[in-house]
Target: Amidase
Amino acid sequence: MQPYELTLADAARRIRARELSPVELVDSVLDRIGTVDPHVGAYVAVTAEHARAAAREAEREAARGAFRGPLHGVPAGLKDLIDVAGSPTSASSRVREGHRAAADSTVAARLRAAGSVLVGKTHTHEFAYGLTTPQTGNAWDRGRVAGGSSGGSAVAVAAGAATFALGTDTGGSIRVPAALNGVVGLKPTYGLVPRHGVTSLSWSLDHVGPVTRTVEDAALVLGVLAGHDPRDPASLDLPALDHAAHLTEGEPDLTGVRVGVPRDYYFDHVDPEVEAAVRRGIAELAALGARLVDVDIPMTRYIQATQWGLMVPEATAYHEGTLRTVPDRYQADVRILLEAGELMGAGDYLRAQRSRTLMREEWARMQEEVDVIAAPSVPMTAVKADQTTVTWADGTAEAVSDAYVRLSAPANITGVPALSVPVGHDTAGMPIGMQLLGRPFGEQALLRVGHAYERTQSARSLAPVA
Model:
């Protein structure tokens, strides 16, 4: 096995045992980037020289026995909305030409302090305003969409071009590409991970979280990222938790865990192969001792309107200046959405806020009955790059972007944590994801269930990038 193939947890154990050098690991990942990135386009920039220097410093510290934690010497990719001091934050947009970040974002600073090594900035759909990341090809089939807007991060991890990566999630932008590329994506509870220094799409919906190969890896990264930062008005001051410490090492056992299975919404207009794979995953949870509980998803008719009613005006407000001064620098799809936001009145925005408040209250009541909810992450696997709509069995047509956001948006509106874990492939060989949704600050329950499930499966291999 090559070092780039290691999970974060395995790499951390080997570095700690002095069986693997951070230099060897980072060189292996950089070589892998050189091999696969010309095919998939995960990175907008690769910082090889800085990465090698940081790896050498991590190696010197390891030689002294000075380990900073499980991320020590481990290479990461960061979505190119996340500021790193002295580096461009392009947001994959010509609007940001010439930009360089003056300081680290909170999450970049925390990764740096934990000894992680930045190997590059990963592509996003322009300003995170889309669900496909058109610059990037799917790790399993480059002719298909990567998912978005954290498509570059998910593809890098799936292809072995990063040991882990960070993404952002406003309507599914971590979970969608994670599901489409066969990796793990975690959207934490709103306010758990600070967003200072991260370019905003919609401040009341934005989250930062990890994209990893395993649930254990996600827990390790979350332990570094979480924590209060007063520079983010939404950041919450909560006790620090070691999320990975709560993952059991013995036989997986979910006895006593109540898993909600939606009667409605999450299995409506879903590809039969996706539904079958997710229901097999749910059956596996039951086999591990979980008790399945049927639940009704509240206020489903208002989900799409509430998501767009919040996101569109907030995004337009953020871009107000550049939309007026350099509108020609935006891609057409993003510019149209931003201009549409100027047509939304204050009343529409207030109604969306009111709807969100009611939805949070109804979800809280529903979640009293269960510990987690299990459902599909996305309704279909990765479509061809030129496909714009999907037609369901009943003849209903839906835009691809609307379909991908449909099952992930509720967790953004309510702020609850959500985890996407791989549960197999369809007959075309494309990955399928199962989504676990928890109560606010219920990350430990999500990680426990996801970790137990994946330990019943054979080890996942990297995507077979040419």
User: Anything to note?
Assistant: DSSP finds 15 helices and 13 strands in the chain. The chain has one domain: 3-304+344-454. The mean pLDDT is 96.
